[in-house]
Amino acid sequence: MRYRVRHITEYSYGAPVSLCYNMAHLLPRDTRNQRCLNHKIQINPPPVYQNEGQDYFGNQTFYFSIQEAHKKLVIDVTSDFEITPLDALQWQAKSSLTCGELRAMLNAPNTPDLHMAKEYLLDSPQIRRSQALKDYAQATFTDDQPLLSAALAFTHKIFTEFKFDPDTTTVATPLEQVLEQRSGVCQDFAHLAIGCLRSVGIPARYMSGYLETLPPPGQEKLVGADASHAWFAVFVPELGWVEFDPTNDIMPSDQHIVTAWGRDYADVTPLQGVIFEGGGSQQLAVSVDVQRR
Amino acid sequence: MQSQKGSPVAQMNTADVVPAQVSSYDQPINAYDEAFKENRQPRPHWEHLLKSVRALGDEEMLNKQRRAQRILREDGATYNLTSDPLTPSVWSLDLIPNVIHHQEWQAIEKGLVQRSTLFDLILKDLYGPQELLKNGIIPSEIIFSHPGFLRQCHEVFVPGPHQLLLHAVDMVRDNTGQFQIIGDRTQAPSGAGYSLENRTVVSRVIPSIFRDSQVHRLSHFFQTLKGMLSKLASGWTDTPRIVLLSPGAMSSTYFEQAYLANYLGFPLVQGSDLTVRNGAVWMKSLNGLARVDVILRRVEDAYCDQAELRTDSYLGVPGLLEVARAGNVAIANPLGSGILEAPALLKFLPAISQFLTSETLALPSVATWWCGDSEDLNYVLANINQLIIKPAIRRHNSNSVYGHTLTDEAKANTIEMIKKQPHLYVAQSYVPGSMSPIWREGKLQARPSLLRAFTVADDDSFAVMPGGLSRVGDTSKESIVSNLSESQSKDTWVLSNQPEVPKSFVADTLLQDEALQTNLPSRVVENLFWMGRYAERAEISMRLLRTLFKQMNGIDPLPEDSLRILLETVSTQTECLPGFIDADAALLANPDEELVAIITDATRPGSIKANLHAMLSCGEQVKEMLSADTRIIINELRDHIHDLDRAYINGLPPAPEESLDSLVTSLLALSGLNHESMLRGLDWTFQEIGRRTERALQTAKLLRSSLTKPLPGAQQKQILESVLLSVEALISFRRRYRNRSRVAYGLDLLMIDGSNPRSLLYQVEQLRKYMKELPRNDVPTAGLSPENRLIIKSLNDIQLADLEALSQVDESSQTRLALEQLMTQLLEQLEQFTALISDKYFDHTERPQPLIKNNWEANL
């Protein structure tokens, strides 16, 4: 499957900003089934300095700095992808590793992958393990449960027990609250699942990207209607990282486009940085289009 | 084991010994003694020193100790834990150095080089291939859960063979005399500058003992440091600009930073003095932006860049990390190096060393357990009495717990705390440290001691400072001195077996340009400017108050009208308002309380003390610019302020007019010194502009508030004379005009007499002169710049003033309206002038704000 994604981020400031330094995680990365064919990034006003690179997690980064006064900042990214489908369900049949076995392996790690997977077992900037999270997930991930079917069941559990509601959370809503109110958006569900998994001793990481949405039959797709999306992945020693999308109750195959992964949202924030002067009332508008080619 | 009785000194030479020295040097059991053998004979390499100290005798040692403290105070050597400009803690130094034999030192040196080399390799690995983690040599969760591991710094390397450039190592001796390493400092190690200061003081106070002892010199270490730093930028420049990045005057080791900056010849800058533009780092100077190539930093990792690291930092340079990533600036140590300070690493060092270098460590680390390992946890819980419990993540407020000092209840709490989050705790076996003799109360006393050693990257290896910073505990009680604040320091002498030939150094390739003169950070200049202004404000207010006290306590009672005018003048002059403005009869009758507040209430803006505090704070900010003599006067000033507090503790003292004399004298000495010994660079010019503008403003204000209101003959004379007295012009006035005390004559002397250094004209003429010396860093404009225009306008207003008209009383308002109007106009022009100067030359960038409020959580 080939896609073209156009992602436009627009910041409007109440007063002119004289100077800014930004680190963006907006450029796509390659994964085992995704290849980025090309990408184009346009920034207005034009940066005086810019640099593409790779971060600690292997994600593509884009750093830029603007030195002219501006009240509006527009970042326009267009990228083309080729994605091959994954037969994720088939892995489930093949992999018989239980949760207990994985925990034992992590307890006495003997491969580089296991040693490195521990990074995703610990607390991270926005996700802390807790008793409440453990309580919520414990029954699903008992020692004798096969890991993959447990993770799938857990994905389904979140999907059915939580309500998708963009009005109940913000970027800063703590996990405890999400768990309490049983509602949130894709980012909250991904964080929640990761927090639960880590709380029961299973390494999990945050996936950030896009999802292709299809219009209802007979209707035309609206421009800008797609959105950034987030889901999670679980570490399975013989398979690597296996992805789950609790917002849609599926295992991603070829409709999920990955931009970056990390321990949580803080590692892959689309745009971070500082501005000098101005700012005031900041407004952010984001539009995303995912088109099949 | 040593016996508890007898005296080592006594056995050395019984006849000469002062008895007081003898009994006091009790050697504790179970500790190695630096100076004495078990039979209480001095160790051979200590003999000369101990003999010489004894020969000096009690009194002379006391004198020398006092002299050392005085030099330290005069040098401004402080270790501040509070930010109070009045009570800095003077760095504490014991005169008796810690002596180490050169043979023993050679072994230590080898061990230190090996350790630094290893730490360098660890740093490269953690921010690169991470083989140590992948192979389980270091349990990965130690690194992954540590906030000092900055993923943003992944693969950001400084040019050259090393990543770890500066390393400090804390070590103690166990009871066999073997050194054991208890911790490392790898971000921005402090202490090397204090070592240098200690050496300077000790060699000045006991010069002959120092000379005869053949002590290894420290200068080579600093030359190596300087050479290493300048090589870092060799990829893009032969004349690198190197700056020392300081957290600022609030930093507890600010003295050391200022001292090192001066010694090494680097500008001392703060985060806000630097800016990132066009992918490079620049220093904001009076001449515009000057490219910075190398940063020697004293700011901690996470605080260095608000764009990528902690957005809530006040100390960083937004965008700095990206410049380092792009290879356009070199930072020593590189950002992220703090991870090497994780105490849990000590446990794994032998294995790490085997894995990376196949070597065994020559200098062992103290036995360390990491509670994240279940076996270790069990051991720690069972043996807590013999252990020190340390947090696995070092923070400013984190303290070590000494198991053997705990009560049962505290022990139970500690165990509970560890069990809850075992991976956050590390335990080390308790090594009390060796005993070192200090001179205290006229005798030698034994104190537990600790040595901080320093290494610096040098070509393919590391150079070690011969010696280091020795610190001793405050009591003889067994406890390791880990905190700089609670200890006394010592010079450390590594004895050489032959006289040392001074090495000649390669010619300095560093920027020797106008750098230090014109490339001062604007912040420095701004502080000098304000220092001048505050000093002037304080001085004029004090003079005025002194005059007021004289008049109030004079033989003739002051008529109420006159008293009111003088008191109101005090209030308007100090801007301690409302004060005496429109005071009622009760306040006029009892002005003491308000007067005391105007003098001693530091919380009241405009008070004498507030101005002096502000002046001292500015001075502290530019410590590195102040001459030795200036520091002496500033110390005196601090003493006088303390005296003032004492004098005013119960309200106005008996002779209040005398209470301010010594402060006025110190301020005069300060301005005199500026004139006599400061180079006429831009720093001087700006300080002078500050002073002159302030004096002009104060004088105009004084004339306006004291002379606007007309009084009958004798009373008017009294007020005029008070004004003249307070600006030191009364004698000249009497000489010139005899008994003709007219307001117009007074104005002549105070306004337009160019030969009076306190007249308005004199100030503005000087300002006119200084303006010509300022850099013109703006686009050339046609005609005069606005600030010049204001000065020339003021000059004309003063010179063209009709003094007779000014002294006339306006019929309708019954005031000297023309005088009031002219002074008001001058005040406005001068205020506008300072605003323009400050806009043009000083930096007004606001703090950066985060784009998105991001909860950057350092504390996991």
From TrEMBL, chain A:
What the entry lists under SUPFAM superfamilies is as follows: Cysteine proteinases
All residue ranges annotated as the Transglutaminase-like domain in the record: 178-248
Signal peptide feature range: none
Check the record and name the Pfam families matching this protein. Bact_transglu_N, Transglut_core
UniProt name for this protein:
Transglutaminase family protein
- Which species is the source of this protein? Marinomonas transparens
The beginning of the lineage is: Bacteria, Pseudomonadati, Pseudomonadota, Gammaproteobacteria, Oceanospirillales
